[in-house]
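Students often ask why we bother predicting the structure of a whole assembly rather than each chain alone. The short answer is interfaces. A chain on its own may look different once its partners are present, and contacts between molecules only exist in the joint model. In this exercise we take three input lines together and write out one structure for the complete complex. Read the inputs first and try to guess which parts will touch.
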Amino acid sequence: MDQGSIRVGTENIPSALVQFASADKLINLGRANSLWPLTFGIACCAIEMMAAGCARFDLARFGAEVFRPSPRQSDVMIVAGTISKKMAPGIKTLYDQMPEPKWVIAMGNCAISGGPFVFEGQYGIIEGADQFLPVDIYIPGCPPRPEALIEGIIELEYKITGWRRWPKVTAE
Amino acid sequence: MEPQFTEFLYRDDILWITAFMLGGLAFALGPIAIVYLFMPRKTRQIHNKASQAIECGMDPIGDSWIRYGVVFYLYALIFLAFDVDVLFLFPVALAYNDAMFVYRDLVEIVLFVGILALAVIYAWIKGVFEWERKTYLRP
Amino acid sequence: MIIETVKSHLLELFPEYAQVTEHVEETVALEEQPSPEAKKGKKEQLVTRPNGLKDCSYDACGYHLDLQLSTGQLLAATALLFKNGFFLETITGVDWIKEKQLEAVYDFSRYDFDLCRVVVRTRVPRENPVIPTITGIYSGASWHERETHDFFGIKFQGHPHLIPLLLPEDADFHPLLKDFKA
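Now the answer. The structure tokens for the assembled complex follow.
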């Protein structure tokens, strides 16, 4: 990826008029630690997203507690829930209306690949957000626990800055 | 020597005022210019709907210029009346500077503000500050 | 008691609890309900009759009265229910594929004085399911009828805006029919 440009499929987005070199790291740090999500809870994963935003599993300590109702003010779209075919044009429009830089987190099994609603002959849902959105982070679970959403946000921070807030924990 | 003295002060005052005005403009327009320089020039599109008015992802129904209650307009109007009052009070400290006529100046200013406040009292009696918005049931 | 008053009002409208239980396997045409004269009687005699005719108790069925009509009587029954202060809970459909009929089920209810729930059913042939809309009486039926049309294919005549509610706008299939294979 070129410095400062964003890859969109096959087309590059022209970057800003003024470029930073090493201040980019600082700016990315700022972006990562203040990710404002777009409230896009479609189904049950929305409850877990709300729980993650509330007091027990606080998202405010990561700067991500301000869920914006408007796509024009948000950085990350957390697609939480089953995407039905009727909802898909709305999601595409909202994604278009978000300004760069923007990221997408697919939360829950339904947003990753259709989840439990995939069967032969299903007529109503789109099997996964990455059928039409460029997804950055996948959070598996049905629904994923709020800690999993927090881990997803930390992973996104790592993707943006290259620095992980807390070390990765592996099961022994 | 007197005219030169006042001329000197006048030029300095003008410089100060210009500096403040430019500073105010910089505060107001500066963020816009900074954003314009630093922003990415496009955003990734799926449907090319970036410039559509936001209606939660759906196509907007109806015009955005809607009818709203007239109480908002009345409040803004009365605020304007007060604001002009305040504007007139700014040079008072400089102009009424004479230590000999303190009480005379006070009475004069109170009269001035009182006459301007009559407009607000008139609006008050007319009931501008009752926040009753009449809503009409659509047929 | 208040519940008696409510039910006596209802009995003016629905003189008897008429649950259709006969299944005609051979004939394909639309069946008139087993006691059409009782339905006519319902419409003419709007006098109070003694209560006590509950075939199904609320604990067993979840509703108090169950009425099956033909499509021609549906609007009259709905108007009478509206006059008696019932609100519409839902409209749904049932696919009786063996009898080649589609059934629309309307749930009405009122609970302001005492709970009373009434179920109204209508049957139409499967090939040409047309039912008059009740949006003229209950405008909240608009979305319920759209959903029923969406999933069963029942066309509601006179509906102002019969487009799919839950399926995509260009869907031409009706998923809840029993012979729907994706």
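Check your guess against this: Chain C is about 25% helix and 25% strand.
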